[in-house]
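Researcher: I'm preparing a figure for a lab meeting and need a structural model of a single chain. I don't have an experimental structure, so a prediction will have to do for now. The sequence is pasted below. Please return the structure as tokens so I can convert it later.
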Amino acid sequence: GEASWASCSSNGCRGASVECTWDFASTESPIDELVFEGSDGALKMAGMSPNGSVIVADMSGNTKQELTFDMPEHTAQRLIQAVTNDLLLDSEEERQVDYLSFGENAVRTQKVMDAILESYYGGREMGYWARTKSWPGRPKS
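Model: Understood. Here is the structure written out token by token.
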């Protein structure tokens, strides 16, 4: 489906292609690398790890720049701290925490994921997992 936040329409990006492979059962040495190749070079970074640098490379694969970042706070840290404070601290003033979400973020994320996966699953209503043969994006055997 179409989404106002999407960088590509539901018809896809013209001139752009994506190829992803995840093999968690491979017997080869693990490679955690995500590469974006463009007409003038590539960006290389860890695909599954939250830390590590981003390498800007030229067309020959030579490193032009390396960008490093501080490790971010764990995404659930504030929620965990809020629950801990609520259980352990006595006064309302001591428990005061900056809550980041009241549910709107979860609903928005669900809508985003549903829009992204619509063309593969043909909808993610209750029980969609039981109709695998009718998924429009399922590889034909």
